[in-house]
Amino acid sequence: MTPGHRPVVAVVSGTASLVRAAHDLGVDVVLVHAGAAPAPQVLERVESAVAVAELSDHEALHAALEPFHRVRRFARVLSLTENGLLPAAVVGDRLGVPGNPSRAVRLLKDKRRMRDLLNARGLSPVRARPVSSSADLAAFLGEVDGPVVLKPATGAGSHAVLRVDLPGEAEDAWRRFTDEGGGDPVAEEYLAGPEISVECFSHEGRHVAVTTTDKHLLGNLVEAGHTVPSSLAAEEVDRAVNLVRDFLDLVGLREGPSHTELRITVAGPRIIESHNRIGGDKIRELVRRAHGVDLVRLTVGAALGLLPPLTEPPPAHGGAAVRFLTPAPGLVRSVELPRFEDSRTTVSVDVGPGDRVKSVRRSEDRSGYVLAEGADAAEAARVCERAAALVRIGTVPDRAEEAEPCAMPS
Fold first, then answer.
1. Total H helices, total E strands in the chain
2. Class assignment of domain 127-189?
3. Is the whole model's pTM more than 0.90, yes or no?
4. If both were cysteines, with which of 72, 127, 137, 239 could 189 make a disulfide (CB 3.0 to 4.6 Å apart)?
5. Nearest C-alpha neighbor of 218 from the set 329, 373, 139
6. Which range has the worst mean pLDDT, 27-31, 32-36, 138-142?
7. How far apart are CA 68 and CA 245, in angstroms?
8. pLDDT, tens digit (0-9, with 9 covering 90-100), for 164-205
9. Which fold has domain 8-99?
10. Residue 39's pLDDT band (cuts 50, 70, 90)
11. Where are the domains of the chain?
12. Which residues belong to any copy of the ATP-grasp domain (predicted)?
């Protein structure tokens, strides 16, 4: 295709992988990024790049993109980043570009509104309510008569997510929540049971489950690893997938990837939260290795008719797993990495001697990861965990770090 006949998309806060996928499929890209952020490293692959002061300023974003749209109509306004999802949907609505409606994206971004809708429809009911003080939190704990989870209604990355077991712990939990910058707090009953996520891909309102992911959590609910596909019994997977399909229909999601987290409780699967993007924490790579599906490439290609959409769940050709490194908090004195002859195992360490390791309170506090694949999910998990045990990150106590034991997997 020659320029002018090629489709064009706007990419808001674009990941390099999304820009590359569009470019490789013969799609022209107008890239929008936040002005305060460093210029993206993929500018040579875009037709135009535009900086706006704040992506959340929808008026400014619309003003930046509308002139391009007048000249060459956008086929889509896309984003796969948490801070770009809603701006892309809002501007897409205003420009009349096909895609996910902003109402659907707002519901997925706001855990309180999402929960209210689910409870009103009797779908995956969970007791929940907004709280504005430690007294509110203590009162809710008394009503639930069990543990609750305190979290920001619009948070991500396990930021300021706290489990609170007893009313007497409410004041301390509230202080930690505010100290960690938590806002717009909502409390929900704690859901006991295995946690999974369902990775879906939607096209014209039809939702296909690409895979299910077993999630491994630290005691404070920060994710410690993932394994694809899930080891749950087939009937449990079917219940979870059917619930997620009904949920995505309810919120009105039309196309692209989604990542929905659930707990498998004695009363059945219960939705925790969902996002109209690919799951983080290397889930995209796990899906590629286990199922041979490139979700980023599919995001562009299926929407523009350049690739066939998924019509059935893709078979698993093996398993894949990731485990995150969570050394004891303190100053790093040494890092020892094993040497793997098998190219199917990848190790990435984000710290070195002299760096400070924090107590793991959010995803960003982890120190790296090990990713592996195997003949099936169980083998991939075994290989990954053995490899992670061989990575030695030596730390010594640091007075600047709170004296708090490192969170252990739940």
1. 11, 19
2. alpha beta
3. yes
4. 127
5. 329
6. 32-36
7. 35
8. 999 999 999 999 999 888 888 999 999 999 999 999 999 999
9. Rossmann fold (3.40.50)
10. low
11. 8-99, 127-189, 192-317, 322-396
12. 115-304
